[in-house]
Structures
1.
Amino acid sequence: MHASYGNVCRLPHELPKSKAETGGSGRYMAAIELDGVTKRYGDVTAVRDLNLAVEEGEVFGFLGPNGAGKSTTINMLLDFVRPTSGTVRVLSRDAQAESVAVRRRTGVLPEGYDVYERLSGRKHIEFAMRSKEVDGDAEAMLERVGIADAADRRAGGYSKGMRQRLVLGMALVGDPDLLILDEPSSGLDPAGAKEMREIVRSEADRGATVFFSSHVLGQVESVCDRVGIMREGELVAEDSIEGLREAVGGEEQLVVTVDAASEEDVEAVRALAGVSSAATDGGTVTVSCESDAKTQVIGALEDAGVTVKDFTTQEASLEDLFLTYAEGAGAVTGTGTGAGAGRGDDSTAAADTEVPE
Amino acid sequence: MSVEAVARKDFQDAVRSRWLLGLTAFFVLLVSVVVYFVRPGPGQTIPTSALLGSFLVRDALVTTLIPLIALVVSYNAVVGERETGSLKLLLALPHSRSDVVFGKVAGRAGAIAVPVSVGFLLPALVAAIGPLSLQIGTFLGYILLTLLLSSAFVAIAVGFSAAVSSNRLAIGGAVGLYFLFVPLWGAIQFPLRLYLGTGGAPGWLPLSGTELLRLLRLLNPTGSFKIVAGEWVSTTLFAAGQASVEGGAGQYATAMEIAAFAMLAAWLLVPPLLGLWRFEGADL
């Protein structure tokens, strides 16, 4: 049984309570449970010791830059790839041993798929219906995802956005309990992305759990109950959007123009209370800190013998925070190429860094 | 049923391919040419069995061309979808990997039934109006046996397609399998027949020379097909009793005919199972 919700955008304090309580047991049912999951391809670790639980009925945004391990994680949920270690459970079943049963109740929009070029959109939907053993109206489904007028054309002639809509339609067949959408907005124009969000909302209202990935926070902000942020195969943050906002609320970004700053100088800044991250490219020092720590930051730099020429402050946006988590740029020592923290230039993304909590 | 859903989808997909259309036209053309060549003189008629038993149809057409068509149509059945990514669409739906492999075998085997049936029936019907006396039972039975042969090769190709991870390997495998089963097998058999047929089997083998030759003939799906199809056309399938003079139609022992059927059935099942075994363990 699912509870149903009038509004997907809820405040965090309303979140997990009474969501999908099972009978009288008082225990929340997890739609997705990853426990100590690691996936290695040869020497490359795509996902490292991932623990994640998504409650039934929840809309969960799975964020991170490309290559962070999002798709590998999703592929493990669907048994496309098998974890090197750890256990994956979906809808309270073993994702590997009971994969067919899992997929019978799951709708999937995979990443890197292709449609059957020679078959029409209608044939695709009919195939999904036959596969899930449900009766339904293919026409109505195509209508719902907005490609009814192309129903009898070969899908090979569809645009990227139309293919995305078609496969979303296949995923929605049979009112699944869980929707797994990998980068659902890719290939869609802004209007299409908005329609996608509306569909996610109405599915959540129906009681479905929605798990979707994105590398753009803006797309998920308005529909997600909670988000998880992946970076280099690890989950670096897991919170509600509101929680993230609160976390970022007291922080400011201080950009200090200096004559020359070394790593040791920045280390001194990092050691200060109230500073969550600091980085330098030599000419500027970028610091994320609480607003009352600003003077101490300037003082610490001057104490270290750095000449401060100028400084500006700005309030960190949610997007900055996301980038900080996602690219791990917050505590990175710049190599002279970038403008500082939170901008996500490649040199910082690849560096081995500590991640602010 | 899941296998059926996959098979149906795959059939719909495959029959729409230009390859299949081209192969159908090609096959109709070839059968027509053969029918033209073996046609009787003016005023005479020949039975269809004479046509089907002729060297041109049996050896030149069916056992060389059918394996080729089957391999061409099926080599990328699984790995092709794996490379383009449509396999993710397939496996996002509630199908097991074995549903995919066996659904593919059924779907592609069904797709090949189109060129085979059209290729045989169309020229035969045309000829039947003229000088050919059509034995419809014999003819339909022959088509079914041909479909058994084509299905065996589809099964081999799909099994291979499931086992490998790239289209290039699948193409290489299909070409290799074709050369193994069609020209190479015959080339090896000829000198072996001279050697073994004259009683020169190696002493360490528990088989006599003729037994070894029989085994070699059975092992190749086209060899098994020739045995059962030859017997069928000469209406001696399962009727020859123990008469076991090797070589000509109507002269195989029933045990040999049963063995030939069993061998074809094994080709239908074993390669897909081996392919599935590799496919099950693969990360997609």
2.
Amino acid sequence: MAMTIDVEDLGGAKAVSVIALDGELDASNYERLIEVVRDAYARGARGLVLDLSKLSFMASSGLFALHSAYRLMRGETPPDPEAGWGALHEMAQDHDAEAGSVRLAAPQDAVSRVLDRTGMAKLFPVDADRAAAVAALQGA
Amino acid sequence: MELHARRRLLVAGGTEQGAAIRAFVRDAVAAFGGSKHASDDLVQAVDEVACNVLLHGYGGQAGEVELQAEMHDRRIEITILDRAPVFDPTGPVDPGAPQPPRRPGTAGVGLHLARTMTDAVRHHVRPGGGNEVTLVRAIDDRTDPAEEG
């Protein structure tokens, strides 16, 4: 199953991009997501909502894409794909989740379990839906 | 004991085969009567192991991976067979442990997921070369292991 990526740029007090993923995020397509986030940052987005409501599967390569999104939205380069756990733990040490500029909206159960099992759920704020995530980023 | 036929899938190529691999696992678990969690867990674990082989096992060359699914005593066993150089995914992947020899790019996260999503992981070297990795998961829901960060 392929994955489609839909991007919506929102104005407001803080420029926010909403990236909706539909399908399965895996080793064959995670780099596309990283490029879409890179483009959003280049257009001026300083807050990012990943709408996961239609994402049915996320491989470990998808976790790497999430970590890359976190770094890109801070104006940093993506992590080294070879760093693996080291990069995730580095992220945990410097990460203030509630102050972060990347929020996850409405992950399905299978994706939530992956986020939980790897500790990533503690690193990204998770909201019930995209509207709540956007509101949290824009301080509404 | 209820009998189920062994199911097989042979794929060749790269990570674009992931979708076919996951579909095979979902179909097998459904045929065996597995729970939603059993299906999600095995899909995750098999994808991580099989795509690791397709990405790194053959040194950047196209290679084959065979999947076999069976059920024994209400446990689903999915075996991933390849002809790649020997790689044992049952070695330590704890982030605090010394890094074992590994394939480039794995860095342990996917293998950690494969282990935590299953009840057992077995590795054997195949006669004639290659790896046989078996992932075992109860067909029912189970108590989740402690979350790891």
